[in-house]
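Page 47, continued from p. 46.
Same chain as before, 467 aa.
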Amino acid sequence: MSTAAETATAAPGSAGGDHNIPLGEAVRVWARVAALSFGGPAGQIAVMHRILVEEKRWIGENRFLHALNYCMLLPGPEAQQLAVYIGWLLHKTKGGLVAGTLFILPGFLSILALSYVYVLLGNVPIVEGLFFGLKAAVLAIVLHAIQRIGKRALKNNVMLAIAAASFVAIFFLGAPFPAIVLAAGVLGYLGGRAGLSAFKVGGGHGGSSGPTLPDADSALGEGVPAHARPNVGWSLRISAIFLALWVVPLVALVVALGWDNVFSRIALFFSQMAVVTFGGAYAVLAYVAQQAVETYGWLQPGEMLDGLGMAETTPGPLIMVVQFVGFLGAYRDAGGLNPLLAATLGAVLTTWVTFVPCFLWIFLGAPFIERLRSNAALSGALSAITAAVVGVILNLAIWFALHVLFDTVIETRVLGLTLDVPVLSSANWAAITLTAAAMLAIFRFGVSMGWVLAACALSGIVYRLIY
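Result:
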């Protein structure tokens, strides 16, 4: 039943975008959105749509999709940035800060708690079994992500060719993920600017299948609030603040501790990731895993899957898995600090440099969104990047599969290329069976991700207790 305050906030806004939504009520609603934000960006965006558009009627369908399209053009988690955007649209800068912070807070606290359990109790059979089962479920979920994104992105032969080239570049040639994103973006930009139909962006995340809410009938209305109109002075001020919040700690760490200190490396590496994470978390995880395991030695291949399992089973953006990477990296290279204290600082630092840029992108660009809305060149860049992401995720799935399904993987030179090749005799039949069951549940019977994760975790625990 709606309260009087909720009924009042559902009244249509004026032409200027005024409304009567109290900030206190918005805080409660954003906390609710955050607590229900499971299932990756598609699920998180669906939750926001259901609550903000259909239930609260605070923002109209077209305006919601308009904001989403802009967020899809940006690096970083689009669902969290969408929350920042709508929060800013409703309650100015403080609204964006509240919405964006609450969106990541439950996931941060959950993964931090699980990380403590992981390093303190990781050798306990129940905990080992939990993560053994989660790995199998995560592999099935990643494969399902390839299918889901591929259906949306690979709508013509050009997009198929970009995806194939992306896979070859990263799997066989070892090309870095940022270079693949840049190349795809430039190609898409040129194709979109030339007006080629193959580079037009298709549909994004779906909303409701029911009647849509016109902007004029929403609490915000169809007008533009005064604070949402382009203001170069405000944009420069707010950008300077968030740029300082992002860069100053990074520079301070490098100056105080040196380039080779684990905290400096964490800050620099994940700051770079914040700039190139186009296409969602699955796309960048292959590159993060490669660098964290092979270059920095922060964790082992199987541990990356454990972290992904944590992120899949907790609310918030999937990219929160990087928090686990920073946690383990600092835990194992604590210097003179207590390992758990160093790990906590590593998790906080990783989260900070990952998400502060998200606020920067929104507060800087949102007032100018109308100028980007119909830009064919930028739409083409997004279309090509999304196609390239399919190839990158396929590489991620193969990399994960090798380390989940086989106990031993070795590097082998094939035709002058260095490839990871499994030792067939080391096949882990329990993992293969559990992964096959998870895939059957997801692909054939459409079982929800939560149930698959729970069933696999329970199966893993039982297996470890018996064997």
